[in-house]
Design goal:
The protein is mostly beta strands. It has a single domain, classed as Beta Barrel (Lipocalin). Helices cover about 5% and strands about 70% of the residues. It has one helix and 14 strands, in the order αββββββββββββββ. The strands form two sheets. Strands 1-3-4-7-9-10-11-12-13-14 form a ten-stranded antiparallel β-barrel. A hairpin with an 8-residue loop joins strand 1 and strand 2. It is elongated. The relative contact order is 0.18.
Length: about 250
Protein backbone atom coordinates (compact mmCIF):
# COMPACT_ATOMS: atom_id res chain seq x y z
CA UNK A 1 0.00 0.00 0.00
CA UNK A 2 1.24 3.50 -0.84
CA UNK A 3 1.33 4.78 2.73
CA UNK A 4 3.71 2.13 4.11
CA UNK A 5 6.97 3.44 2.64
CA UNK A 6 6.57 7.08 3.71
CA UNK A 7 5.31 6.08 7.15
CA UNK A 8 8.24 3.73 7.76
CA UNK A 9 10.59 6.56 6.87
CA UNK A 10 8.81 8.95 9.22
CA UNK A 11 8.87 6.37 12.01
CA UNK A 12 12.61 5.90 11.58
CA UNK A 13 13.18 9.64 11.87
CA UNK A 14 11.07 9.82 15.03
CA UNK A 15 12.83 6.84 16.58
CA UNK A 16 16.26 8.39 15.97
CA UNK A 17 15.06 11.68 17.40
CA UNK A 18 13.69 9.98 20.50
CA UNK A 19 16.79 7.85 21.17
CA UNK A 20 18.39 10.20 23.69
CA UNK A 21 15.05 11.00 25.32
CA UNK A 22 14.32 10.64 28.98
CA UNK A 23 12.45 7.71 30.49
CA UNK A 24 9.12 9.50 30.89
CA UNK A 25 8.83 10.30 27.19
CA UNK A 26 6.40 8.35 25.07
CA UNK A 27 6.00 7.24 21.45
CA UNK A 28 2.52 6.71 20.04
CA UNK A 29 1.37 5.10 16.81
CA UNK A 30 -2.08 5.39 15.28
CA UNK A 31 -3.63 3.67 12.27
CA UNK A 32 -7.20 4.40 11.29
CA UNK A 33 -9.82 4.67 8.57
CA UNK A 34 -11.08 8.06 7.41
CA UNK A 35 -14.12 8.95 5.31
CA UNK A 36 -14.12 12.40 3.69
CA UNK A 37 -16.85 14.09 1.64
CA UNK A 38 -15.66 16.54 -1.04
CA UNK A 39 -17.03 19.96 -1.90
CA UNK A 40 -15.34 22.53 -4.11
CA UNK A 41 -13.79 23.08 -7.52
CA UNK A 42 -10.59 22.69 -9.49
CA UNK A 43 -9.06 23.63 -12.83
CA UNK A 44 -5.97 22.92 -14.92
CA UNK A 45 -4.84 25.78 -17.16
CA UNK A 46 -2.80 25.79 -20.35
CA UNK A 47 -1.56 29.14 -21.58
CA UNK A 48 -3.91 30.82 -19.11
CA UNK A 49 -6.95 29.00 -20.54
CA UNK A 50 -8.94 26.63 -18.37
CA UNK A 51 -12.41 25.96 -16.98
CA UNK A 52 -13.23 25.61 -13.31
CA UNK A 53 -15.33 22.52 -12.63
CA UNK A 54 -17.33 21.59 -9.55
CA UNK A 55 -16.47 18.27 -7.87
CA UNK A 56 -20.08 17.38 -7.06
CA UNK A 57 -22.31 19.22 -9.53
CA UNK A 58 -20.18 18.71 -12.67
CA UNK A 59 -18.30 15.49 -11.93
CA UNK A 60 -20.33 13.58 -9.32
CA UNK A 61 -17.41 12.86 -6.98
CA UNK A 62 -17.77 10.06 -4.41
CA UNK A 63 -16.42 10.11 -0.86
CA UNK A 64 -12.81 9.21 -0.12
CA UNK A 65 -12.41 6.19 2.17
CA UNK A 66 -8.76 5.53 2.98
CA UNK A 67 -6.36 4.42 5.70
CA UNK A 68 -4.51 7.08 7.70
CA UNK A 69 -1.44 6.78 9.92
CA UNK A 70 0.35 8.92 12.50
CA UNK A 71 3.49 8.57 14.61
CA UNK A 72 4.34 10.93 17.47
CA UNK A 73 6.96 11.26 20.19
CA UNK A 74 6.54 13.31 23.38
CA UNK A 75 9.76 15.12 24.33
CA UNK A 76 8.96 16.73 27.69
CA UNK A 77 6.79 19.73 26.84
CA UNK A 78 7.28 19.17 23.11
CA UNK A 79 5.42 16.82 20.79
CA UNK A 80 6.85 15.89 17.39
CA UNK A 81 4.43 14.17 15.02
CA UNK A 82 4.37 12.91 11.44
CA UNK A 83 1.26 11.76 9.60
CA UNK A 84 0.27 10.51 6.18
CA UNK A 85 -3.19 10.73 4.66
CA UNK A 86 -4.22 9.77 1.12
CA UNK A 87 -7.29 11.43 -0.36
CA UNK A 88 -8.79 9.61 -3.35
CA UNK A 89 -11.81 11.13 -5.08
CA UNK A 90 -13.33 9.91 -8.33
CA UNK A 91 -16.51 10.60 -10.22
CA UNK A 92 -18.49 10.16 -13.40
CA UNK A 93 -20.64 12.89 -14.89
CA UNK A 94 -22.09 14.38 -18.05
CA UNK A 95 -20.83 17.87 -18.83
CA UNK A 96 -23.35 20.69 -19.13
CA UNK A 97 -20.85 22.94 -20.96
CA UNK A 98 -17.52 22.82 -22.76
CA UNK A 99 -14.58 22.38 -20.36
CA UNK A 100 -10.96 23.31 -21.12
CA UNK A 101 -8.69 21.14 -19.01
CA UNK A 102 -4.89 21.28 -19.41
CA UNK A 103 -4.83 21.82 -23.15
CA UNK A 104 -7.71 19.44 -23.92
CA UNK A 105 -11.32 20.43 -24.53
CA UNK A 106 -14.17 18.26 -23.25
CA UNK A 107 -17.46 19.12 -24.90
CA UNK A 108 -20.96 19.61 -23.61
CA UNK A 109 -22.82 16.30 -23.14
CA UNK A 110 -19.54 14.36 -22.99
CA UNK A 111 -19.49 11.55 -20.42
CA UNK A 112 -16.41 12.22 -18.29
CA UNK A 113 -14.49 10.15 -15.73
CA UNK A 114 -12.36 12.21 -13.38
CA UNK A 115 -10.05 11.72 -10.43
CA UNK A 116 -8.37 13.87 -7.79
CA UNK A 117 -5.66 12.03 -5.86
CA UNK A 118 -3.91 13.86 -3.02
CA UNK A 119 -1.12 12.49 -0.85
CA UNK A 120 -0.95 14.65 2.25
CA UNK A 121 2.19 14.51 4.41
CA UNK A 122 2.01 16.40 7.71
CA UNK A 123 4.95 17.07 10.05
CA UNK A 124 4.22 19.12 13.16
CA UNK A 125 5.86 20.34 16.37
CA UNK A 126 3.77 21.34 19.38
CA UNK A 127 5.05 23.22 22.44
CA UNK A 128 2.77 22.59 25.41
CA UNK A 129 3.00 25.90 27.26
CA UNK A 130 0.35 24.49 29.59
CA UNK A 131 1.34 21.01 30.74
CA UNK A 132 -0.50 20.42 34.00
CA UNK A 133 -0.94 17.06 35.70
CA UNK A 134 -1.81 18.24 39.23
CA UNK A 135 -5.43 19.11 38.42
CA UNK A 136 -8.46 16.80 38.53
CA UNK A 137 -7.77 16.38 34.79
CA UNK A 138 -4.50 16.35 32.83
CA UNK A 139 -4.27 19.47 30.64
CA UNK A 140 -1.91 20.12 27.73
CA UNK A 141 -2.22 23.16 25.46
CA UNK A 142 0.14 25.04 23.21
CA UNK A 143 1.03 26.37 19.76
CA UNK A 144 1.70 23.99 16.89
CA UNK A 145 3.85 24.65 13.84
CA UNK A 146 3.44 22.18 10.99
CA UNK A 147 4.22 21.77 7.32
CA UNK A 148 1.78 20.05 4.99
CA UNK A 149 3.19 18.65 1.76
CA UNK A 150 0.36 18.39 -0.79
CA UNK A 151 1.12 16.03 -3.68
CA UNK A 152 -1.91 16.23 -5.97
CA UNK A 153 -2.80 14.65 -9.30
CA UNK A 154 -5.89 15.65 -11.30
CA UNK A 155 -7.20 13.84 -14.35
CA UNK A 156 -10.15 13.81 -16.74
CA UNK A 157 -11.02 11.28 -19.47
CA UNK A 158 -13.74 11.02 -22.05
CA UNK A 159 -13.40 8.34 -24.73
CA UNK A 160 -9.99 8.71 -26.37
CA UNK A 161 -9.41 12.16 -24.88
CA UNK A 162 -7.60 12.31 -21.54
CA UNK A 163 -5.46 14.76 -19.59
CA UNK A 164 -3.53 14.47 -16.33
CA UNK A 165 -1.71 17.15 -14.34
CA UNK A 166 0.13 17.03 -11.02
CA UNK A 167 1.48 19.52 -8.51
CA UNK A 168 3.48 19.43 -5.28
CA UNK A 169 3.07 22.30 -2.83
CA UNK A 170 4.42 22.71 0.71
CA UNK A 171 1.99 24.62 2.92
CA UNK A 172 3.06 25.62 6.47
CA UNK A 173 0.40 26.16 9.11
CA UNK A 174 0.37 27.71 12.57
CA UNK A 175 -2.23 26.78 15.15
CA UNK A 176 -3.07 25.26 18.51
CA UNK A 177 -3.18 21.73 19.85
CA UNK A 178 -4.63 20.62 23.17
CA UNK A 179 -5.40 17.47 25.09
CA UNK A 180 -7.55 16.93 28.17
CA UNK A 181 -6.99 13.68 30.03
CA UNK A 182 -10.33 13.04 31.69
CA UNK A 183 -8.99 9.80 33.20
CA UNK A 184 -6.07 7.43 32.69
CA UNK A 185 -8.07 5.63 30.01
CA UNK A 186 -9.94 8.56 28.39
CA UNK A 187 -8.68 11.68 26.61
CA UNK A 188 -10.04 14.43 24.38
CA UNK A 189 -7.75 15.91 21.71
CA UNK A 190 -8.28 18.97 19.53
CA UNK A 191 -6.13 20.83 17.03
CA UNK A 192 -6.52 23.57 14.45
CA UNK A 193 -4.02 25.08 12.04
CA UNK A 194 -4.13 27.76 9.35
CA UNK A 195 -1.91 29.79 7.07
CA UNK A 196 -2.27 31.67 3.80
CA UNK A 197 1.03 31.44 1.94
CA UNK A 198 2.01 32.39 -1.63
CA UNK A 199 -1.42 31.75 -3.20
CA UNK A 200 -1.83 28.56 -1.16
CA UNK A 201 -3.84 28.22 2.01
CA UNK A 202 -4.72 25.39 4.34
CA UNK A 203 -7.16 25.03 7.23
CA UNK A 204 -6.92 21.81 9.24
CA UNK A 205 -9.26 21.19 12.19
CA UNK A 206 -9.58 17.97 14.12
CA UNK A 207 -11.32 16.74 17.27
CA UNK A 208 -10.69 13.26 18.65
CA UNK A 209 -11.54 10.98 21.56
CA UNK A 210 -8.98 8.41 22.78
CA UNK A 211 -10.08 5.40 24.82
CA UNK A 212 -7.55 2.95 26.30
CA UNK A 213 -9.34 0.18 28.21
CA UNK A 214 -5.99 -1.58 28.72
CA UNK A 215 -2.58 0.07 29.30
CA UNK A 216 -0.70 1.19 26.18
CA UNK A 217 -3.40 -0.01 23.74
CA UNK A 218 -6.62 1.68 22.76
CA UNK A 219 -8.97 3.01 20.11
CA UNK A 220 -9.73 6.50 18.86
CA UNK A 221 -12.49 8.25 16.93
CA UNK A 222 -12.94 11.78 15.67
CA UNK A 223 -13.96 14.23 12.99
CA UNK A 224 -11.63 15.97 10.50
CA UNK A 225 -12.06 19.10 8.40
CA UNK A 226 -9.74 20.35 5.65
CA UNK A 227 -9.99 23.49 3.57
CA UNK A 228 -7.36 23.49 0.81
CA UNK A 229 -6.53 26.16 -1.75
CA UNK A 230 -3.64 25.46 -4.11
CA UNK A 231 -2.64 27.67 -7.04
CA UNK A 232 0.62 26.26 -8.42
CA UNK A 233 2.01 25.36 -11.86
CA UNK A 234 -1.29 25.91 -13.73
CA UNK A 235 -3.20 23.79 -11.20
CA UNK A 236 -5.97 25.35 -9.12
CA UNK A 237 -7.81 23.60 -6.28
CA UNK A 238 -10.29 25.31 -3.95
CA UNK A 239 -12.09 22.68 -1.91
CA UNK A 240 -12.93 21.43 1.54
CA UNK A 241 -13.26 17.89 2.82
CA UNK A 242 -14.76 16.68 6.07
CA UNK A 243 -15.83 13.44 7.71
CA UNK A 244 -15.46 10.96 10.57
CA UNK A 245 -12.63 8.55 11.29
CA UNK A 246 -11.62 5.86 13.77
CA UNK A 247 -8.81 3.43 14.46
CA UNK A 248 -6.44 1.80 16.93
CA UNK A 249 -3.49 3.19 18.86
CA UNK A 250 -0.48 1.89 20.78
CA UNK A 251 1.89 3.69 23.13
CA UNK A 252 5.30 2.68 24.43
Amino acid sequence: MRFLAPMLTLLAVLALTAAPALADEMISLKVGYLTLSPEGEFAVFDGGIGTTVDMEDDLGFDDSEELMAEAAVQLGSFRLAAAYLPLRFSGHGTLSRDVAFGGQTFHVSDSVDSDVDIDLYDVGLTWHLLNLDDLPVRLQLGPELSVKFVDAELSMKSGAVSETESVIAPVPTIGLRGRVGLADFLGLVGRVGYLDYDNNSFVDADVQVEFSPVPLVGVFAGYRYFDIEVDEDDVFIDAHFDGPYGGVLVRF
